[in-house]
Amino acid sequence: MNFKLNFLKNIFLLPLYLLIWLYTIFTFIPWYFLTDAQMKRTMAKRIKAKSTSGKPSGPYRSVDRFDSLSTMDFPGVDTLDKLFDHSVEKFSKAECLGTREVLSEENEIQPTGKVFKKLILGNYKWITYEEMDVQVNHLGSGLAALGQKPKNTIAIFCETRAEWMIAANACFRYNFPLVTFYATLGQDAVVYGLNQCDATHLITSVELLETKLKGIFSQLHNLKHVIYVDKKNIQTADYPKEIQIHSLESVQELGAKPEHLSVPPSRPSSSDLAVIMYTSGSTGIPKGVMIDHSNLIAGMSGQCERIPGLGPKDTYIGYLPLAHVLEMTAEISCVTYGCRIGYSSPQTLSDQSTKIKKGSKGDCSVLKPTLMAAVPEIMDRIYKNVMSKVQEMNYIQKTLFKLGYDYKLEQIKRGFDAPLCNMFLFKKVKSLLGGNVRMMLSGGAPLSPATQRFMNICFCCPVGQGYGLTETCGAGTITEVADYSTGRVGGPLICCEIKLRDWIEGGYTDMDKPNPRGEILIGGPNVTKGYYKCDKVSEDFFVDENGQRWFCTGDIGEIHLDGCLQIVDRKKDLVKLQAGEYVSLGKVESALKNCSLIDNICAYANSDQNYVISFVVPNQKKLTALANKQGIQGSWEEICNHPSMEAEVLKAIKEVAASNAVKLERFEIPVKVRLSPEPWTPETGLVTDAFKLKRKELKNHYLNDIERMYGGK
């Protein structure tokens, strides 16, 4: 019976195989020459970086800038205000920043009783480079009229939007060091940062003003002026009299007055402080990283070199937090090269996003971006959602998808493409992000090879991984567009170099085979000054005998033969079990994230125990279907707390861990699990804005479960 069924299936699939074979014969040869496929293959296989010392530990530099490191893109343009002036002069009439109109809002009541706000949005409204320049000038002049002094800090605590970039450029032009805070930071962290940086002026939104700032004004010692960016009227009588509340428009109107506008700005030098960027505090109190103009200029020169063809034909969608170095440098780079930036949010990004009313269009569908940055968490969600839809297809559709996927996978591994599959099989998937994305960049955390390959195939564009830190202006490495490997983060950018330092305790040295491994150190003009008002000089920064600054990342890397870097571990994620084995929690999480039942996972281990446990945010759709299949009824919370469901997730974890693609050791596989009915979001305080796990907060949150899973010890 099985033989007969398989025979019938093969007969049915024969025309499909024949179609692909004929397509390959008749289109491959012309396509091969017309698309420079051979050149792309050569670029993919070439050496990207070499050791300047000849030693396996490095330092490694890009072969494209081996003799000296890049410090700027354009001669003489050595500060951020000059960079913006250069763009305005070159692209004055072009569209620059775009924001969608909100046509209406309505509340939608869910079956659980929760109320979700749904939006119906219109088209994007744009301002040109020239119009942005005027707004920047008026705002900078207005802030100066309100008493803001050059080289005195000014804080911004605001969501990603056009006004954020306008405010930032006003600060750069008038030499007001900009202090950035994530919009999701808790009140204690905001109080700490604002008091530490001594800012007298704060730029924010009405929502944050009313929900977070209103209750902490009494704890802020220096604040005198609050500028809100929304076009709304608020009751200033509700706020302390010693703090003046202004709208952004009113400050711009003040700055536009001839007596203020006639006073020329005090322009910065390249060594002046441009930004104090407070980290998201994944390991405790947020630290303010001091970044001067020359650091950012150098870092962006390296990043832009890895994005071929960056220019006025590109549209970038901005939705990640601008207080994160990845998004801020990406947007400044786009403005530098004449791109336009359309603003979005994670809640309005696609047609299926949580704030988009059913039947209306998300931001990607309207904007049709060509460039996009994302954190792995978002890409993992897209991957799981699409694959979930594939599983719901009928047999014919599912078979077609799998055939096309496998065929294109083989083509990509050989350095080629599959235009017919792109046209007919993946067009609908590609349209989820507007249909025009030509390059995606992932940063903030390691991206799993499976997710990276899926995005390559289904969205029909290169998906590059970047590696960098706030302390290096987000610059370190980025994979080249032609590099079709996965799991690596590319070679060093032309603005910096990388070396490895042995970490004996963890078992990583430059003598490791087949490739040298060790702690990653990044050096170059993009390495920042250090931490703001740090009581002692941080051991993470040092200056070598040649006067070059270095930052010790705490990440463990492996340098491949072609000079590309792979992140293999993190010192803080390594736990020694009772029997002496070392477990990399990050490695365990990365390996298990692609389990279909798991949306997010945090591995945990105690040194006085001999096994690993885990906390899991399960996939609601998959787990609910599994519960129904087993006759388990109840609310989502009751399903997550059911012992049978915990057992099913553990079973799935073991199956994934045992697969050839993962290869976890026995002692690395979690043996107990706690399912969380609530997702981990920046708002819950359990992950950062880049969706990195906050291990300390997660440990405290699940303290009772840890005691239970470790038998009360």
TrEMBL record:
The keyword Lipid metabolism applies. It holds the Pfam family AMP-binding. GO terms for cellular component: endoplasmic reticulum; lipid droplet; plasma membrane. PROSITE patterns: AMP_BINDING. The keyword Magnesium does not apply. SUPFAM superfamilies: Acetyl-CoA synthetase-like (SSF56801). It is an enzyme of class 6 (ligase). The chain crosses the membrane at residues 12-33. Residues 122-532 form the AMP-dependent synthetase/ligase domain. CDD domains: LC_FACS_euk1 (cd17639). Its EC number is 6.2.1.3. GO terms for molecular function: arachidonate-CoA ligase activity. Keywords: Fatty acid metabolism, Ligase, Lipid metabolism, Membrane, Transmembrane, Transmembrane helix. The lineage of its organism: Eukaryota, Metazoa, Chordata, Craniata, Vertebrata. InterPro entries: AMP-binding_CS (IPR020845), AMP-dep_synth/lig_dom (IPR000873), ANL_N_sf (IPR042099). One of its GO terms (biological process) is long-chain fatty-acyl-CoA metabolic process. This is long-chain-fatty-acid--CoA ligase.
